[in-house]
């Protein structure tokens, strides 16, 4: 019996969401490419996150820092030492490698052979800059995007005339030489992070840690993820990463168990202190005025004028991991189909009930039949009318019922059908993905009608 993750993987490939990287060469371990629908959907996820952070919250600004940085950044951050390493155990018999915390005994889960003593394995990906590959030219692909934010903490603070507390949001690629990349795009060696670093007074870090945990959980809920599949779990002391004073994971109930999708950490002054010491630059902050932001007012009770290294509370999510969560949570199979009137609908129907903000294609444009040139012509006119405003797909192949199901399978929220009446009345039917109800709408009214449906205004 095919499991849910296999079904999602197969749908993702079949419908142009995600392909294996370098597939014609047999694939390249744990690397994936986002196809035409995948790139639309991932962009939508990133936009939803960006808007949430920079528009729906006050005092958060954006940044796009370089992937390559001075190797001194990674020395000071602790990533080059044992702090950023997984424990690796190897089977003496079949030589397969495992993360030590994933195997309960000293036996190989695959062949039962004896495992070696775990040894530390650093996750940083090394590379060389310039023409000579020597020690002087070594640097690393960033393992987390937030270090680029710390490097620009002062630049952003001064250029934007910000006052603490404030946040910097960034979306970008990160790289980790994971020992056991697995579960499709859940754990890969190249992935995209969506991180927000919140700079605050030390004594307010705990308050903001709780605040941001709730905010981030709500983001997933507001985008339709089922409540029963989400939870927030506080880290035990021994689970904390080397930089954190407190941590919590937002977890999703994947087919392979409850797993992290986003980390919330109170990083204390670890980063700014260490970078201050290593660079010789004083990164402390002098608190002079309160923020005038009314919504943050409750967090400011006392007047202070003190010098301190700000504490950082981070929300650190993955664009790829949340992509997988959205796909899994939206996936539905309907045995026998939802349409009782068509014979063709007697198989298993797939419905991708994604939130309309996330769906890759908003509107499908379908001529009722393709052998009537006047219908095709009208449908193409409608497609051209809508294409600049919404992601649209034009489809004329197969019966109309089959085409509706093809759109349901990729989550398209509206299917517009141009029929013979359309030629007389200058209107068409608009079918809703979830209710399958259809209404007739004048072609000239479509842009406003669709905008209304999409934005609920
Ligand atoms: P894990 O315990 O799963 O290795 P982590 O605790 O090391 O994750 P963080 O360093 O907190 O992860 O990274 C923040 C987020 O970045 C994660 O919640 C996840 O969404 C994403 N992420 C981290 N590593 C990977 C990876 N190898 N592949 C895909 N996404 C990742």
In words, what does this structure look like?
- With 457 residues, the chain is of the alpha+beta class.
- Helices cover 29% and strands 27% of the residues.
- It contains twelve helices and 23 strands.
- It has helices at 4-14, 36-54, 71-77, 146-151, 153-159, 205-222, 270-279, 319-330, 373-386, 400-410, 420-425, 446-455; strands at residues 18-20, 32-34, 60-63, 85-90, 97-99, 119-122, 125-128, 138-141, 166-175, 190-200, 230-234, 246-254, 257-268, 285-286, 307-308, 311-318, 331-335, 348-352, 363-367, 392-394, 414-418, 427-432, 438-442.
- Strands 3-9-10-16-13-12-11 form a seven-stranded mixed sheet. A five-stranded mixed sheet has the order 20-19-21-22-23, with helices on both faces. Strands 5-4-6 form a three-stranded antiparallel sheet, with no helix packed on it.
- β12 (246-254) and β13 (257-268) form a beta hairpin.
- α2 packs across α8 (319-330) and α3 (71-77) crosses α7 (270-279).
- The longest helix is centred in the N-terminal third of the chain and has 19 residues, at 36-54.
- The two termini are 44 Å apart.
- The relative contact order is 0.11.
- The model has no long low-confidence stretch (mean pLDDT 91).
- Residues 144, 176, 178, 187-188, 191, 193, 260-263, 316-318, 320-321 line the site of adenosine-5'-triphosphate.
